[in-house]
Amino acid sequence: MDLGTAVAGSWSSGISVYAVAAILGISGRLEWVDSPDFLQRPWVIAVAVVLTVVELIIDKISYLDSTWDAVHTFIRPVAGALLLTASDVSAGTVLLAGSGATLALLAHGAKASTRLLVNASPEPVSNVVVSTSEDGIVAALMALALAAPELALVVALVLAMLSAIVVYFVVRGGRRILARRGGRQI
């Protein structure tokens, strides 16, 4: 798999691992991209499509989405690691796996931490808007990864940096709120 596609897939799997698996599996079967063989198996594609639909629904429901994200804290980085190790890059497997896991974890961290803030909002519309935006970002990045992998590589790396910034500020803000509520400094 091309490096740009693998990096975009790794980062995107931190938001929607099943959509990425379905897209890469279907694209591989159609010979649009050289995706890993295990993703091209019909039963894997079918399971990924079903789980994508489940995730699309669960992700729109406040608090249920955060539970889903908590469970996927362990799944998404593994998927990111597997995708980057399946790239055409001739680097060490440990380096590729660590990089893929980091990309997925950055996206997942930004998604999960942002969702905790959005879920604290009293109105339900913001959760649906944020979730739909995340779905759109994944779809656009994966489409770009199939059409222009080099550009997708750059975009994915910029998104990874933005994800790190989001995680930093959400965690920092959360610590300040907890410190004010508890009357102590964290």
Q: What does this entry look like structurally?
A:
The chain has helices spanning 3-29, 42-58, 64-72, 75-85, 93-119, 125-147, 149-182. Helix 1 packs across helix 7. It has one domain (3-182). With 186 residues, the chain is mainly α. It is globular, with a radius of gyration of 17 Å. It is built from seven helices and no strands.
Would you spell out the secondary-structure blueprint of this structure?
Elements: H1 3-29, H2 42-58, H3 64-72, H4 75-85, H5 93-119, H6 125-147, H7 149-182
Keywords:
186 residues; mainly alpha; globular
Number of domains as seen in the coordinates: 1
The number of helical elements comes to 7
* Shape, principal axes of CA atoms: globular
Structural classification: mainly alpha
Q: What is the H/E string?
A: HHHHHHH
Share of residues in strands: under 5%
Helical residues, percent? over 70%
Low-confidence stretches: none
Rg (C-alpha, Å): 17 Å
Total number of β-strand segments? 0
N→C terminal distance: 44 Å
Average of the residue pLDDT scores:
92
User: Major beta sheet, specifics?
Assistant: none
